[in-house]
Amino acid sequence: MTTTTEPLEDQLTADFYAYETLLPDEERAILLKARALLRDEIKPLVNSNWAKGEFPRELVGIFRDSGLAGLPYEGYGEHRPAVSNLLSGMLAMELSRTDASVATFFGVHNGLAMYSVHSGGDQEQRDRWLPAMAAMDKIGAFAMTEPLGGSDVAGGMRTTARREGDTWVLNGAKKWIGNATFADYVVVWARDVDDNHVKGFVVEKGTSGFEPAKIEGKIAFRIVENAEITLTDVRVPEANRLQNINSFRDVAEILRATRSGVAWQALGVMTGAYELALDYARERRQFGRPIGGFQLVQDLLVKSLGNITASWGMLVQLARLQDAGVFRDEHSSLAKAFVTARMREVVAWSREIFGGNGILLDHDIARFFADAEAIYSFEGTREMNTLIVGKAITGRSAFV
């Protein structure tokens, strides 16, 4: 495969250093296909459903027809060889550049849920679940966070699993679980009461005792159907226990990979916000001329572009480390902590350029501003990821 170099002015507006051209032609074609799909079929659905706080179920069919699911997993999905981590990251960016909720729906299914099965399951389990998930005939969810446990869930997981012969009995509760209200397969993490280790279970839709309830009243990710799940004597066969997960250390391998995807999402959100602000600055006239000609507005735009470009550089190299199989927890954690902080700055500066219009959903920027807060918090807070990196560079743990 070859890589195409094109003039900088032909690249994505916020891709100032043309990082997109690092993709080989075949992978770039996939990215451009996704961009067109998002622009033509998905973006028109976003604002009305964000305002209603509803997930547009037609999204599943749109993604099913696109063939974009399953790309990171060799042998599954429309693109049988696994694509690079660089393309996977750019796709997460592209999705979030349109809407963070849409990106999260797809990321939970294609990332957290499918990667849990691919990494944590044995070959029989991969062959049983992944083809239908790659085709998006079955939708996945990932249930780890609990009502009383977020950052401390590794050592304080309250959801339990008790083995009875060839069956496991799950009891407890989960919270903030995206897609769980309609998912066909939910990967539930629970603490084995016998050995005190965390294990993973695929709970299928309709299982008795598994009760998801949609969380209402959110100010961010309003399209995502997050659920609070109650598990009451949920019986799961041993065949549905992920066979390669024996402790939280194994789970951490999954989180390390998916955390980098959240950093790419943050890049997409700040990219989308910046592009909205740039377009607005070119068109909005005050004092007889476009506000893009004012020094203070240009200052905000250039600072935003600097944050975006710095984040691109970090994430491209992170993807290369992933493709080489040498990336570590602290690599993902630094990217998540740094890029989400830069995202917060960019969406604030972008909303500022809109002035009073920045609080109107019609201009899109308000949605980006609100959704950024969710990305800033999940997959490990800035503080938790900071301590992971701090431990790596000093050799001393500051965790309490």
From TrEMBL:
Cofactor requirements of the protein: FAD
Domain Acyl-CoA dehydrogenase/oxidase N-terminal: start-end pairs: 25-136
PROSITE patterns associated with the record: ACYL_COA_DH_1, ACYL_COA_DH_2
Enzyme Commission code: 1.3.99.-
Acyl-CoA oxidase/dehydrogenase middle domain segment(s): 141-234
Keyword Hydrolase: no
UniProt-listed GO biological process terms: fatty acid beta-oxidation
Keyword flag Zinc: no
Keyword annotations from UniProtKB, A to Z: FAD, Flavoprotein, Oxidoreductase
Cross-referenced PANTHER family: ACYL-COA DEHYDROGENASE, ACYL-COENZYME A OXIDASE
Entry similarity comment: Belongs to the acyl-CoA dehydrogenase family.
Record's protein name: Acyl-CoA dehydrogenase
Species this protein is from: Streptomyces chartreusis NRRL 3882
Lineage: Bacteria, Bacillati, Actinomycetota, Actinomycetes, Kitasatosporales
